[in-house]
Amino acid sequence: MARAAVPRRLGDRLRWRPARLTDRRAESEVAHTLVLEVPGWPGHVAGQHVDVRLTAEDGYSTQRSYSLSSAADGDSVELTVQRVDDGEVSPYLTDVLAVGGVVELRGPVGGWFVWRPEQKEPILLLAGGSGMAPLMAMIRTRRAVGSRTPFRLIYSVRSPEYQLFVPELRRDEPGLDKTYLYSRSTPPQWPRPPGRFTASDLSSAGWPPDFEPTCYVCGSTGFVETAAGLLVAIGHHPGRIRTERFGPAG
């Protein structure tokens, strides 16, 4: 049987490329941002992810998917990786891989959970923990292109020490409203007690449904299912809710 031709652009994205670590930044006690130089990188859209492959000297290899946290910037990309203590890949990326070290990267992947600058509707970003990574790519892309599209971010984490991108998100940015929710412990004198987010939180910090915003929800499976359900319950159309979830491999 003859094989269907693979479009050159698609085939280019599906091949593995060497990616060299040029810098790393600690984002929290358990998360690092890796700055990778990827020669010939085809570019990406905010919200997409990549596959990362590690190969041992004996030939054994394993791979995981990680969201891109950077805006497109030439041959450089950024991945923000949270260490999973019993994981096979994340501990190596956060604790072992040294500047100058090389991994393999394939992508970018994904076309649904993306934000493009030509979108003009209001945007609601709802992040749970390390689900902030692809949403940060959207915020950075908005800034890089000078977009005036209004963004609202609701960022839910267990406690302040788990927040990512703290210095950058502390900056005032016109058209970007930020709300932080803490489920276990809060900063001193925080006005809201710790607890899981509610429909009231989404109503007060998000967009009214009649504004017809596009809602991007990223986090663990439980977080995403709860958040999407609450958004529908308060009146948002399911077709305007885009979700991305993560979890342990296997």
UniProtKB/TrEMBL annotation:
The keyword Iron-sulfur is annotated on this UniProt entry: yes
SUPFAM superfamilies with a match to the protein in the record: Ferredoxin reductase-like, C-terminal NADP-linked domain (SSF52343), Riboflavin synthase domain-like (SSF63380)
Domain of life: Bacteria
Cofactor: FAD
InterPro entries, per database record: Cbr1-like_FAD-bd_dom, FAD-bd_FR_type, FNR_nucleotide-bd, MRET, OxRdtase_FAD/NAD-bd, Riboflavin_synthase-like_b-brl
Domain FAD-binding FR-type: 14-115
Claim: Iron-sulfur is one of the keywords in the record: yes
Keywords: 2Fe-2S, Iron, Iron-sulfur, Metal-binding
Protein name (Swiss-Prot/TrEMBL): Ferredoxin reductase
Originating organism: Streptomyces coerulescens
PANTHER family: NADH OXIDOREDUCTASE HCR, PROTEIN RFBI
Signal sequence bounds: none
Pfam families, sorted: FAD_binding_6, NAD_binding_1
